[in-house]
Amino acid sequence: MLELRPNCECCDKDLPPDSTEARICTYECTFCADCVDGVLKGVCPNCGGNLVARPIRPAAMLVKNPASTKRVLKAEGCAPKAA
Prior knowledge:
Layout: E1 22-24, E2 30-32, H1 33-37, E3 52-53, H2 59-64
Antiparallel strand pairs: 1-2, 1-3
């Protein structure tokens, strides 16, 4: 089950569970659409994989399976990995 992390790892923007702006990679690294489209150019800076829209968990399901509250922020900045 996805953690539904609460923020963009790049700019720390809040990304609540119902956000249509959240993007994730296969490892669930989480970024906002602005950072993905701008600085990251669609590539995860952690693993080099692509970033896609994060699914939205229905509100009724959040009661039983709440979103994560642990914030992750890249201390070294947010530039994509060199190929």
